[in-house]
TrEMBL record:
InterPro entries noted in UniProt: FN3_dom, FN3_sf, Hematopoietin_rcpt_Gp130_CS, Ig-like_fold, Type1_Cytokine_Rcpt_Type2
Coiled coil spans: none
Official protein name in the record: Leukemia inhibitory factor receptor-like
CDD domains in the record: FN3
Domain Fibronectin type-III span(s) in chain numbering: 145-238, 239-327, 425-526
Lineage summary: Eukaryota, Metazoa, Chordata, Craniata, Vertebrata
Gene Ontology terms: cellular component: plasma membrane
UniProt keyword terms in alphabetical order: Disulfide bond, Glycoprotein, Membrane, Receptor, Repeat, Signal, Transmembrane, Transmembrane helix
Predominant location: membrane
Pfam families in alphabetical order: fn3 (PF00041), LIFR_D4 (PF25552)
Length: 588
Protein backbone atom coordinates (compact mmCIF):
# COMPACT_ATOMS: atom_id res chain seq x y z
CA UNK A 1 0.00 0.00 0.00
CA UNK A 2 1.16 3.51 -0.71
CA UNK A 3 -0.04 7.09 -1.29
CA UNK A 4 -0.11 8.29 -4.88
CA UNK A 5 1.92 11.43 -5.48
CA UNK A 6 3.75 11.41 -2.15
CA UNK A 7 7.46 10.65 -2.01
CA UNK A 8 9.92 10.98 0.79
CA UNK A 9 7.31 10.48 3.54
CA UNK A 10 7.35 7.88 6.28
CA UNK A 11 4.87 5.04 5.57
CA UNK A 12 4.36 1.75 7.37
CA UNK A 13 1.92 -1.06 6.48
CA UNK A 14 0.42 -3.35 9.15
CA UNK A 15 -1.37 -6.64 8.30
CA UNK A 16 -4.56 -7.06 10.25
CA UNK A 17 -5.96 -10.15 8.49
CA UNK A 18 -5.56 -12.01 5.20
CA UNK A 19 -7.38 -9.25 3.28
CA UNK A 20 -7.12 -6.33 5.68
CA UNK A 21 -4.15 -4.00 5.99
CA UNK A 22 -3.54 -0.69 7.76
CA UNK A 23 -1.35 2.11 6.31
CA UNK A 24 0.23 4.63 8.67
CA UNK A 25 1.58 7.82 7.04
CA UNK A 26 3.39 10.83 8.56
CA UNK A 27 2.79 13.78 6.18
CA UNK A 28 5.38 16.54 5.98
CA UNK A 29 2.71 19.15 5.21
CA UNK A 30 -1.05 19.49 5.33
CA UNK A 31 -3.09 18.01 2.52
CA UNK A 32 -5.35 20.22 0.45
CA UNK A 33 -8.18 17.66 0.28
CA UNK A 34 -8.24 14.34 -1.53
CA UNK A 35 -5.51 11.69 -1.30
CA UNK A 36 -5.35 8.55 -3.48
CA UNK A 37 -4.46 5.36 -1.57
CA UNK A 38 -3.37 2.47 -3.79
CA UNK A 39 -3.02 -1.25 -3.02
CA UNK A 40 -0.92 -3.23 -5.43
CA UNK A 41 -1.24 -7.03 -5.66
CA UNK A 42 0.48 -9.57 -7.86
CA UNK A 43 -2.37 -9.37 -10.35
CA UNK A 44 -3.63 -5.80 -10.34
CA UNK A 45 -3.81 -2.50 -8.45
CA UNK A 46 -6.74 -1.34 -6.36
CA UNK A 47 -7.30 2.02 -4.76
CA UNK A 48 -9.47 4.31 -2.72
CA UNK A 49 -9.83 8.07 -2.18
CA UNK A 50 -9.40 9.48 1.31
CA UNK A 51 -10.77 12.87 2.36
CA UNK A 52 -8.71 14.72 4.97
CA UNK A 53 -10.39 17.51 6.97
CA UNK A 54 -9.25 19.67 9.88
CA UNK A 55 -10.86 21.24 12.93
CA UNK A 56 -10.69 25.06 13.30
CA UNK A 57 -7.20 26.47 13.84
CA UNK A 58 -7.89 30.16 14.58
CA UNK A 59 -5.75 31.99 17.17
CA UNK A 60 -4.68 35.34 18.72
CA UNK A 61 -7.98 37.00 19.60
CA UNK A 62 -7.78 40.73 20.38
CA UNK A 63 -10.64 43.12 21.06
CA UNK A 64 -10.95 46.93 21.12
CA UNK A 65 -13.49 49.72 20.78
CA UNK A 66 -13.73 52.94 18.81
CA UNK A 67 -16.85 54.67 20.05
CA UNK A 68 -17.34 52.93 23.44
CA UNK A 69 -20.72 51.69 22.11
CA UNK A 70 -19.47 48.62 20.28
CA UNK A 71 -16.72 46.04 20.50
CA UNK A 72 -14.57 45.04 17.53
CA UNK A 73 -12.52 41.87 17.75
CA UNK A 74 -10.01 40.40 15.36
CA UNK A 75 -7.97 37.22 15.14
CA UNK A 76 -5.79 35.17 12.82
CA UNK A 77 -7.80 32.71 10.77
CA UNK A 78 -6.43 29.15 10.70
CA UNK A 79 -5.80 26.95 7.69
CA UNK A 80 -8.56 25.84 5.35
CA UNK A 81 -10.42 23.06 7.13
CA UNK A 82 -11.45 21.50 3.76
CA UNK A 83 -14.83 20.53 5.23
CA UNK A 84 -17.31 20.53 2.30
CA UNK A 85 -20.65 22.28 2.77
CA UNK A 86 -19.84 22.96 6.42
CA UNK A 87 -17.98 26.25 6.98
CA UNK A 88 -16.58 27.11 10.36
CA UNK A 89 -19.14 28.92 12.50
CA UNK A 90 -18.05 31.82 14.75
CA UNK A 91 -19.67 33.37 17.81
CA UNK A 92 -18.51 36.29 19.98
CA UNK A 93 -19.88 36.23 23.50
CA UNK A 94 -22.52 33.81 22.17
CA UNK A 95 -23.60 36.11 19.30
CA UNK A 96 -23.06 34.95 15.69
CA UNK A 97 -20.34 36.59 13.57
CA UNK A 98 -21.34 36.92 9.88
CA UNK A 99 -17.81 37.96 8.87
CA UNK A 100 -16.00 35.45 11.05
CA UNK A 101 -14.26 33.76 8.12
CA UNK A 102 -12.47 37.09 7.49
CA UNK A 103 -11.09 37.19 11.01
CA UNK A 104 -13.26 39.96 12.47
CA UNK A 105 -16.44 40.35 14.44
CA UNK A 106 -18.26 43.24 16.12
CA UNK A 107 -20.76 43.39 18.93
CA UNK A 108 -22.99 46.36 19.80
CA UNK A 109 -22.88 47.03 23.52
CA UNK A 110 -21.90 49.78 25.91
CA UNK A 111 -18.31 49.49 27.04
CA UNK A 112 -17.80 49.87 30.77
CA UNK A 113 -14.61 50.33 32.71
CA UNK A 114 -13.06 47.19 34.11
CA UNK A 115 -11.65 43.99 32.70
CA UNK A 116 -13.95 41.68 30.77
CA UNK A 117 -13.30 38.20 29.40
CA UNK A 118 -14.09 38.22 25.68
CA UNK A 119 -14.67 34.76 24.17
CA UNK A 120 -14.73 33.70 20.53
CA UNK A 121 -16.04 30.23 19.65
CA UNK A 122 -15.13 28.58 16.33
CA UNK A 123 -16.64 25.20 15.39
CA UNK A 124 -17.03 22.78 12.48
CA UNK A 125 -18.04 19.09 12.30
CA UNK A 126 -14.53 18.04 13.30
CA UNK A 127 -14.14 20.16 16.42
CA UNK A 128 -14.63 23.36 18.40
CA UNK A 129 -12.14 25.82 19.83
CA UNK A 130 -12.48 28.88 22.03
CA UNK A 131 -10.25 31.95 22.02
CA UNK A 132 -10.14 34.32 24.99
CA UNK A 133 -9.00 37.92 25.48
CA UNK A 134 -9.29 39.52 28.91
CA UNK A 135 -9.02 43.32 28.80
CA UNK A 136 -10.45 46.67 29.94
CA UNK A 137 -11.65 48.13 26.63
CA UNK A 138 -11.76 51.67 28.01
CA UNK A 139 -7.97 51.42 27.71
CA UNK A 140 -8.21 49.99 24.21
CA UNK A 141 -9.87 52.83 22.37
CA UNK A 142 -8.76 53.07 18.73
CA UNK A 143 -9.91 56.56 17.95
CA UNK A 144 -12.09 57.40 14.98
CA UNK A 145 -10.80 59.82 12.37
CA UNK A 146 -11.10 63.53 13.20
CA UNK A 147 -13.90 65.26 11.29
CA UNK A 148 -14.06 68.67 9.59
CA UNK A 149 -10.33 69.30 9.54
CA UNK A 150 -9.76 72.96 8.61
CA UNK A 151 -6.91 75.48 8.67
CA UNK A 152 -7.32 78.30 11.17
CA UNK A 153 -4.11 80.04 10.11
CA UNK A 154 -1.72 79.59 7.17
CA UNK A 155 1.79 81.08 7.12
CA UNK A 156 4.77 80.53 4.85
CA UNK A 157 6.27 77.72 6.93
CA UNK A 158 3.50 76.45 9.24
CA UNK A 159 -0.24 75.77 9.26
CA UNK A 160 -2.59 75.78 12.28
CA UNK A 161 -5.32 73.11 12.11
CA UNK A 162 -8.59 72.46 13.94
CA UNK A 163 -11.02 69.53 13.86
CA UNK A 164 -14.11 68.08 15.54
CA UNK A 165 -14.68 64.80 17.43
CA UNK A 166 -17.82 62.71 16.85
CA UNK A 167 -17.39 60.86 20.18
CA UNK A 168 -17.98 63.07 23.21
CA UNK A 169 -15.87 60.90 25.52
CA UNK A 170 -12.75 61.77 23.47
CA UNK A 171 -12.78 65.21 25.09
CA UNK A 172 -11.73 63.60 28.37
CA UNK A 173 -8.95 61.42 26.93
CA UNK A 174 -5.26 62.25 27.04
CA UNK A 175 -4.38 61.88 23.37
CA UNK A 176 -1.50 62.36 20.97
CA UNK A 177 -2.28 63.54 17.44
CA UNK A 178 -0.07 63.22 14.39
CA UNK A 179 -0.40 65.75 11.57
CA UNK A 180 1.09 64.82 8.21
CA UNK A 181 1.60 67.15 5.27
CA UNK A 182 2.25 65.38 1.98
CA UNK A 183 4.18 67.30 -0.69
CA UNK A 184 5.58 66.13 -4.01
CA UNK A 185 9.16 66.75 -2.84
CA UNK A 186 9.16 66.73 0.94
CA UNK A 187 6.72 65.43 3.56
CA UNK A 188 6.35 67.04 6.96
CA UNK A 189 5.05 65.41 10.16
CA UNK A 190 4.47 66.76 13.65
CA UNK A 191 2.99 65.33 16.87
CA UNK A 192 1.07 67.17 19.58
CA UNK A 193 -0.28 65.85 22.90
CA UNK A 194 -3.07 67.08 25.19
CA UNK A 195 -6.41 66.29 26.81
CA UNK A 196 -9.27 66.24 24.32
CA UNK A 197 -6.93 67.70 21.72
CA UNK A 198 -8.72 69.24 18.74
CA UNK A 199 -6.00 71.45 17.21
CA UNK A 200 -2.35 71.26 16.18
CA UNK A 201 0.31 73.11 14.20
CA UNK A 202 2.17 71.58 11.25
CA UNK A 203 5.66 73.09 11.03
CA UNK A 204 8.77 72.94 8.84
CA UNK A 205 6.82 73.52 5.63
CA UNK A 206 8.10 74.96 2.37
CA UNK A 207 6.79 78.39 1.42
CA UNK A 208 4.56 78.79 -1.63
CA UNK A 209 3.86 75.04 -1.71
CA UNK A 210 0.77 72.85 -1.84
CA UNK A 211 0.25 70.17 0.82
CA UNK A 212 -2.35 67.50 1.43
CA UNK A 213 -2.85 67.51 5.19
CA UNK A 214 -4.43 64.75 7.30
CA UNK A 215 -4.67 63.95 11.03
CA UNK A 216 -4.87 60.83 13.20
CA UNK A 217 -4.83 60.41 16.98
CA UNK A 218 -4.35 57.77 19.67
CA UNK A 219 -4.78 57.44 23.40
CA UNK A 220 -1.81 56.98 25.68
CA UNK A 221 -2.67 53.29 26.10
CA UNK A 222 -3.55 52.07 22.62
CA UNK A 223 -2.68 52.19 18.95
CA UNK A 224 -3.14 54.87 16.30
CA UNK A 225 -6.66 55.56 15.09
CA UNK A 226 -7.91 56.20 11.56
CA UNK A 227 -6.60 58.98 9.30
CA UNK A 228 -8.89 61.88 8.55
CA UNK A 229 -9.74 62.88 5.03
CA UNK A 230 -6.99 64.85 3.34
CA UNK A 231 -7.29 68.64 3.08
CA UNK A 232 -5.40 70.52 0.35
CA UNK A 233 -3.70 73.69 1.60
CA UNK A 234 -1.20 76.14 0.08
CA UNK A 235 1.41 77.94 2.18
CA UNK A 236 2.20 81.60 1.72
CA UNK A 237 5.30 82.81 -0.10
CA UNK A 238 8.54 83.98 1.50
CA UNK A 239 11.78 85.67 0.52
CA UNK A 240 14.09 83.49 -1.62
CA UNK A 241 16.79 81.35 -0.07
CA UNK A 242 20.40 82.49 -0.45
CA UNK A 243 21.75 81.80 -3.94
CA UNK A 244 24.40 79.24 -4.81
CA UNK A 245 27.07 81.52 -6.33
CA UNK A 246 30.32 80.71 -8.14
CA UNK A 247 32.75 82.44 -10.49
CA UNK A 248 34.72 81.76 -13.66
CA UNK A 249 38.02 83.50 -14.44
CA UNK A 250 38.66 84.46 -18.09
CA UNK A 251 41.85 86.45 -18.73
CA UNK A 252 40.90 90.00 -17.69
CA UNK A 253 37.27 89.09 -17.00
CA UNK A 254 35.38 87.63 -14.06
CA UNK A 255 32.14 85.82 -14.83
CA UNK A 256 29.88 85.62 -11.77
CA UNK A 257 27.38 82.76 -12.07
CA UNK A 258 24.57 81.48 -9.86
CA UNK A 259 22.19 78.55 -10.05
CA UNK A 260 18.53 79.05 -10.86
CA UNK A 261 16.61 78.71 -7.57
CA UNK A 262 14.33 75.68 -7.46
CA UNK A 263 10.67 76.05 -6.56
CA UNK A 264 11.44 75.10 -2.95
CA UNK A 265 14.15 77.79 -2.89
CA UNK A 266 12.55 80.71 -4.73
CA UNK A 267 9.32 80.63 -2.62
CA UNK A 268 7.60 82.53 -5.39
CA UNK A 269 8.49 83.87 -8.81
CA UNK A 270 11.92 85.54 -8.98
CA UNK A 271 11.58 89.09 -10.28
CA UNK A 272 15.26 89.97 -10.70
CA UNK A 273 18.78 89.68 -9.26
CA UNK A 274 21.21 92.25 -7.89
CA UNK A 275 24.99 92.02 -8.24
CA UNK A 276 27.19 94.30 -6.12
CA UNK A 277 30.97 94.79 -6.31
CA UNK A 278 33.11 97.65 -5.04
CA UNK A 279 30.64 100.57 -4.95
CA UNK A 280 28.60 99.40 -7.93
CA UNK A 281 25.23 97.64 -7.99
CA UNK A 282 23.50 96.41 -11.12
CA UNK A 283 20.20 94.65 -11.71
CA UNK A 284 19.96 91.44 -13.73
CA UNK A 285 16.72 90.13 -15.33
CA UNK A 286 15.27 86.97 -13.79
CA UNK A 287 15.96 85.04 -17.01
CA UNK A 288 19.75 85.56 -16.74
CA UNK A 289 22.05 83.81 -14.29
CA UNK A 290 25.49 85.29 -14.90
CA UNK A 291 27.28 88.62 -15.23
CA UNK A 292 30.64 89.31 -16.89
CA UNK A 293 32.75 91.94 -15.11
CA UNK A 294 35.90 93.55 -16.50
CA UNK A 295 38.09 93.57 -13.41
CA UNK A 296 41.77 93.43 -12.61
CA UNK A 297 42.24 89.68 -12.13
CA UNK A 298 45.60 90.21 -10.43
CA UNK A 299 43.64 91.38 -7.37
CA UNK A 300 40.94 89.82 -5.23
CA UNK A 301 37.39 91.14 -5.54
CA UNK A 302 34.36 90.56 -3.30
CA UNK A 303 31.11 90.17 -5.25
CA UNK A 304 27.63 89.81 -3.72
CA UNK A 305 24.48 88.47 -5.41
CA UNK A 306 20.89 88.60 -4.08
CA UNK A 307 17.58 87.36 -5.51
CA UNK A 308 14.27 89.24 -5.32
CA UNK A 309 10.63 88.19 -5.39
CA UNK A 310 7.43 89.96 -4.34
CA UNK A 311 8.18 89.14 -0.70
CA UNK A 312 11.63 90.74 -0.63
CA UNK A 313 15.28 89.84 -1.15
CA UNK A 314 17.28 86.78 -0.24
CA UNK A 315 20.21 86.81 2.12
CA UNK A 316 23.30 88.02 0.23
CA UNK A 317 25.63 85.39 -1.24
CA UNK A 318 29.25 86.51 -1.51
CA UNK A 319 32.08 85.10 -3.63
CA UNK A 320 35.67 86.34 -3.50
CA UNK A 321 37.61 86.01 -6.74
CA UNK A 322 41.18 84.68 -6.39
CA UNK A 323 44.36 86.41 -7.49
CA UNK A 324 45.37 85.07 -10.93
CA UNK A 325 48.65 86.96 -11.36
CA UNK A 326 51.37 85.18 -13.40
CA UNK A 327 53.41 84.51 -10.27
CA UNK A 328 50.42 82.88 -8.57
CA UNK A 329 50.19 79.22 -7.66
CA UNK A 330 49.65 76.86 -10.60
CA UNK A 331 48.67 73.21 -10.55
CA UNK A 332 49.26 70.53 -13.12
CA UNK A 333 46.39 68.78 -14.84
CA UNK A 334 45.97 64.99 -14.67
CA UNK A 335 43.74 62.57 -16.53
CA UNK A 336 40.55 61.08 -15.13
CA UNK A 337 38.55 58.23 -16.62
CA UNK A 338 34.74 58.44 -16.43
CA UNK A 339 32.52 55.62 -15.21
CA UNK A 340 28.85 55.01 -16.07
CA UNK A 341 28.46 58.46 -17.56
CA UNK A 342 29.95 60.28 -14.57
CA UNK A 343 33.24 61.23 -12.91
CA UNK A 344 34.26 59.78 -9.56
CA UNK A 345 36.68 62.17 -7.84
CA UNK A 346 38.75 61.87 -4.68
CA UNK A 347 41.44 64.13 -3.29
CA UNK A 348 43.53 64.50 -0.12
CA UNK A 349 42.16 66.64 2.68
CA UNK A 350 43.44 70.21 2.49
CA UNK A 351 44.35 72.29 5.56
CA UNK A 352 43.32 75.36 3.57
CA UNK A 353 39.67 74.26 3.61
CA UNK A 354 37.47 75.88 6.25
CA UNK A 355 34.01 75.38 4.70
CA UNK A 356 34.34 72.36 2.42
CA UNK A 357 35.27 72.05 -1.23
CA UNK A 358 33.96 73.24 -4.59
CA UNK A 359 34.24 71.22 -7.79
CA UNK A 360 33.51 72.91 -11.09
CA UNK A 361 33.59 71.57 -14.64
CA UNK A 362 32.99 72.53 -18.25
CA UNK A 363 34.11 71.36 -21.71
CA UNK A 364 37.86 71.80 -22.15
CA UNK A 365 37.19 73.54 -25.47
CA UNK A 366 34.56 76.26 -25.74
CA UNK A 367 33.89 76.52 -22.02
CA UNK A 368 30.91 78.85 -22.19
CA UNK A 369 29.17 78.08 -18.89
CA UNK A 370 30.71 76.44 -15.85
CA UNK A 371 28.77 74.10 -13.56
CA UNK A 372 29.69 73.20 -9.99
CA UNK A 373 28.81 71.41 -6.78
CA UNK A 374 29.78 72.13 -3.18
CA UNK A 375 31.06 69.33 -0.93
CA UNK A 376 30.97 69.37 2.91
CA UNK A 377 34.31 69.76 4.66
CA UNK A 378 34.26 66.20 6.03
CA UNK A 379 34.15 64.68 2.52
CA UNK A 380 37.06 64.27 0.13
CA UNK A 381 35.27 62.43 -2.65
CA UNK A 382 32.36 63.14 -4.95
CA UNK A 383 30.56 61.70 -7.96
CA UNK A 384 29.99 64.27 -10.69
CA UNK A 385 26.98 63.68 -12.94
CA UNK A 386 25.22 66.03 -15.32
CA UNK A 387 22.47 65.51 -17.86
CA UNK A 388 24.55 67.70 -20.19
CA UNK A 389 27.55 65.34 -20.25
CA UNK A 390 28.30 64.00 -23.73
CA UNK A 391 30.32 60.96 -24.74
CA UNK A 392 33.57 61.68 -26.58
CA UNK A 393 33.83 65.27 -25.27
CA UNK A 394 36.73 66.20 -23.00
CA UNK A 395 35.89 68.02 -19.78
CA UNK A 396 38.08 70.01 -17.41
CA UNK A 397 37.37 69.64 -13.69
CA UNK A 398 38.84 71.81 -10.95
CA UNK A 399 38.88 71.13 -7.21
CA UNK A 400 38.95 74.16 -4.89
CA UNK A 401 39.22 74.48 -1.13
CA UNK A 402 36.46 76.69 0.27
CA UNK A 403 37.85 79.37 2.59
CA UNK A 404 36.59 82.49 4.31
CA UNK A 405 38.17 84.46 1.47
CA UNK A 406 38.98 83.44 -2.08
CA UNK A 407 38.78 79.73 -2.98
CA UNK A 408 42.12 77.94 -3.33
CA UNK A 409 42.72 75.80 -6.41
CA UNK A 410 43.95 72.34 -5.36
CA UNK A 411 43.81 70.10 -8.43
CA UNK A 412 42.77 70.01 -12.06
CA UNK A 413 41.59 66.96 -13.98
CA UNK A 414 40.71 66.33 -17.62
CA UNK A 415 38.71 63.42 -18.87
CA UNK A 416 35.83 61.89 -20.77
CA UNK A 417 32.71 60.44 -19.19
CA UNK A 418 32.95 57.83 -21.93
CA UNK A 419 35.68 57.66 -24.59
CA UNK A 420 34.69 57.12 -28.23
CA UNK A 421 36.90 55.61 -30.88
CA UNK A 422 38.63 58.34 -32.90
CA UNK A 423 37.51 58.26 -36.52
CA UNK A 424 37.77 60.82 -39.30
CA UNK A 425 36.96 64.43 -38.47
CA UNK A 426 33.70 66.23 -39.19
CA UNK A 427 34.80 66.90 -42.81
CA UNK A 428 35.71 63.22 -43.33
CA UNK A 429 39.40 64.06 -43.38
CA UNK A 430 42.13 61.84 -42.00
CA UNK A 431 43.24 62.31 -38.43
CA UNK A 432 46.88 62.98 -39.37
CA UNK A 433 47.12 66.15 -41.42
CA UNK A 434 50.11 66.89 -43.71
CA UNK A 435 51.80 63.53 -43.20
CA UNK A 436 55.38 64.07 -44.37
CA UNK A 437 58.17 61.57 -45.04
CA UNK A 438 61.84 62.59 -45.08
CA UNK A 439 64.92 60.46 -45.66
CA UNK A 440 67.89 60.91 -43.34
CA UNK A 441 70.63 58.64 -44.70
CA UNK A 442 69.26 55.13 -43.89
CA UNK A 443 66.46 56.45 -41.70
CA UNK A 444 63.02 57.81 -42.55
CA UNK A 445 61.33 60.43 -40.40
CA UNK A 446 57.52 60.55 -40.60
CA UNK A 447 56.01 63.75 -39.22
CA UNK A 448 52.53 65.19 -38.90
CA UNK A 449 50.72 68.20 -37.53
CA UNK A 450 49.72 68.17 -33.87
CA UNK A 451 46.25 66.66 -33.55
CA UNK A 452 43.75 69.33 -32.42
CA UNK A 453 41.88 68.62 -29.20
CA UNK A 454 38.53 69.04 -30.96
CA UNK A 455 39.29 65.90 -32.98
CA UNK A 456 40.20 63.78 -29.94
CA UNK A 457 37.17 61.82 -28.73
CA UNK A 458 39.45 59.72 -26.50
CA UNK A 459 42.78 60.15 -24.76
CA UNK A 460 45.70 59.69 -27.17
CA UNK A 461 48.22 57.65 -25.21
CA UNK A 462 50.93 57.65 -27.86
CA UNK A 463 51.57 56.80 -31.51
CA UNK A 464 52.80 53.82 -33.50
CA UNK A 465 54.47 53.81 -36.92
CA UNK A 466 54.15 50.69 -39.06
CA UNK A 467 56.39 50.28 -42.13
CA UNK A 468 57.09 47.57 -44.67
CA UNK A 469 58.68 47.08 -48.09
CA UNK A 470 58.04 44.64 -50.90
CA UNK A 471 58.85 41.54 -48.83
CA UNK A 472 55.71 42.29 -46.72
CA UNK A 473 57.52 42.03 -43.37
CA UNK A 474 55.89 44.63 -41.11
CA UNK A 475 57.99 46.53 -38.58
CA UNK A 476 56.88 49.16 -36.12
CA UNK A 477 58.20 51.80 -33.78
CA UNK A 478 56.13 53.61 -31.14
CA UNK A 479 56.14 56.38 -28.54
CA UNK A 480 54.13 56.94 -25.36
CA UNK A 481 54.27 60.71 -25.77
CA UNK A 482 50.74 61.96 -26.63
CA UNK A 483 52.23 65.27 -27.81
CA UNK A 484 54.67 63.68 -30.31
CA UNK A 485 54.54 64.86 -33.93
CA UNK A 486 57.08 62.51 -35.53
CA UNK A 487 58.48 58.98 -35.47
CA UNK A 488 61.64 57.66 -37.13
CA UNK A 489 62.19 54.27 -38.74
CA UNK A 490 65.89 53.38 -38.66
CA UNK A 491 68.32 51.17 -40.58
CA UNK A 492 66.19 50.89 -43.70
CA UNK A 493 67.12 49.41 -47.05
CA UNK A 494 67.33 51.48 -50.22
CA UNK A 495 63.92 50.57 -51.61
CA UNK A 496 60.30 51.68 -51.48
CA UNK A 497 58.48 51.61 -48.14
CA UNK A 498 54.90 52.18 -47.03
CA UNK A 499 54.49 53.97 -43.70
CA UNK A 500 51.27 53.97 -41.64
CA UNK A 501 50.79 56.09 -38.51
CA UNK A 502 48.12 55.31 -35.89
CA UNK A 503 47.10 56.92 -32.60
CA UNK A 504 47.05 54.63 -29.56
CA UNK A 505 43.98 54.91 -27.28
CA UNK A 506 42.27 52.81 -24.64
CA UNK A 507 39.85 51.72 -27.38
CA UNK A 508 42.58 50.54 -29.72
CA UNK A 509 44.55 52.07 -32.58
CA UNK A 510 42.74 54.84 -34.44
CA UNK A 511 43.08 57.18 -37.40
CA UNK A 512 45.51 55.13 -39.52
CA UNK A 513 47.05 57.23 -42.33
CA UNK A 514 49.62 55.97 -44.87
CA UNK A 515 52.42 57.47 -46.95
CA UNK A 516 54.98 55.91 -49.33
CA UNK A 517 58.66 56.81 -49.64
CA UNK A 518 61.49 55.49 -51.82
CA UNK A 519 64.90 55.55 -50.13
CA UNK A 520 67.90 56.28 -52.39
CA UNK A 521 71.55 55.34 -51.77
CA UNK A 522 74.12 57.94 -50.73
CA UNK A 523 76.03 57.57 -54.12
CA UNK A 524 72.88 58.38 -56.01
CA UNK A 525 72.48 61.47 -53.89
CA UNK A 526 76.11 62.54 -54.62
CA UNK A 527 75.69 62.12 -58.39
CA UNK A 528 72.43 63.96 -58.26
CA UNK A 529 74.07 66.87 -56.40
CA UNK A 530 76.94 67.03 -58.98
CA UNK A 531 74.55 66.97 -61.92
CA UNK A 532 72.46 69.69 -60.37
CA UNK A 533 75.56 71.88 -59.76
CA UNK A 534 76.81 71.35 -63.34
CA UNK A 535 73.39 72.11 -64.72
CA UNK A 536 73.17 75.33 -62.76
CA UNK A 537 76.67 76.39 -63.88
CA UNK A 538 75.95 75.65 -67.55
CA UNK A 539 72.67 77.53 -67.34
CA UNK A 540 74.39 80.56 -65.83
CA UNK A 541 77.08 80.61 -68.54
CA UNK A 542 74.48 80.30 -71.27
CA UNK A 543 72.45 83.16 -69.85
CA UNK A 544 75.56 85.36 -69.59
CA UNK A 545 76.53 84.62 -73.21
CA UNK A 546 73.09 85.54 -74.51
CA UNK A 547 73.05 88.82 -72.60
CA UNK A 548 76.51 89.77 -73.85
CA UNK A 549 75.64 88.95 -77.45
CA UNK A 550 72.43 91.02 -77.46
CA UNK A 551 74.17 94.05 -75.90
CA UNK A 552 77.59 93.74 -77.62
CA UNK A 553 77.45 97.10 -79.44
CA UNK A 554 76.78 99.03 -76.27
CA UNK A 555 79.40 97.14 -74.32
CA UNK A 556 81.99 97.70 -77.06
CA UNK A 557 81.22 101.42 -77.24
CA UNK A 558 81.70 101.85 -73.49
CA UNK A 559 84.67 99.61 -73.05
CA UNK A 560 86.51 100.60 -76.29
CA UNK A 561 85.19 104.09 -77.28
CA UNK A 562 86.36 105.45 -80.76
CA UNK A 563 89.41 107.79 -80.80
CA UNK A 564 88.73 111.05 -82.81
CA UNK A 565 91.21 112.22 -85.49
CA UNK A 566 93.14 115.58 -84.84
CA UNK A 567 91.82 118.67 -86.76
CA UNK A 568 93.81 121.97 -87.32
CA UNK A 569 91.83 125.24 -87.35
CA UNK A 570 92.80 128.91 -88.11
CA UNK A 571 92.06 130.15 -84.61
CA UNK A 572 93.99 127.50 -82.85
CA UNK A 573 96.13 130.25 -81.25
CA UNK A 574 93.07 132.21 -80.05
CA UNK A 575 92.19 131.59 -76.42
CA UNK A 576 89.01 129.52 -76.09
CA UNK A 577 85.77 131.21 -75.09
CA UNK A 578 84.73 130.28 -71.58
CA UNK A 579 81.67 128.00 -71.57
CA UNK A 580 80.03 125.42 -69.31
CA UNK A 581 81.73 122.10 -69.61
CA UNK A 582 79.63 119.15 -70.74
CA UNK A 583 79.45 116.50 -68.08
CA UNK A 584 81.17 113.29 -68.77
CA UNK A 585 79.61 109.97 -68.17
CA UNK A 586 79.33 106.35 -69.21
CA UNK A 587 76.13 106.03 -71.26
CA UNK A 588 75.00 103.66 -73.93
Amino acid sequence: MYLSGYTGVNMSTTRISNQTYALTVSLNEASNGYIDIKCKTSKTTYGACALIFYPPGDRDLQCETQNLKSVECGWKVGRNTQVPKAKTQYQLQGSPCPDGSEGRCSLNMMVEAGETNWTLTASNPLGTIQLHDRADLTKRVRMLAPEEVTASNINSRNISLEWRWTVDQYKDFSVTCEVQGVHSEKNSTSETSGVGLNSAVLTNLMPNSTYEVKVRCRTDTWRWGDWSRGVTLHTKGDVPDALDVWMQMKENQVVVVWKTPLANQSHGNITDYEVTWANTTTGIPHSEHSLTLHLDTSKEHSITVTAWNINGSSSPSTITTPNTSPDGTRVNSSWIIGSNGSFMLSWPMSPASSCGYIIDWCPTLHCQTVDWIKVPDNNTNATIFSKDFRDGLRYSLSIYACTEGAPVLLERREGYVREIRIERDAKNRTLFKSLNAKQKETDAEISWEKIPLREQSAFIRGFRLYYWNNDSTVFNVSTDDPEATSLTATNLEFTSYTFTVVARTALGECGNTSRSLTLNSLTDDLFRSIFIALGLTLGLLTLTTILCYTNWACIKHKVYPPIPKPVLMDNWLTPPVSSQSRPKGFFC
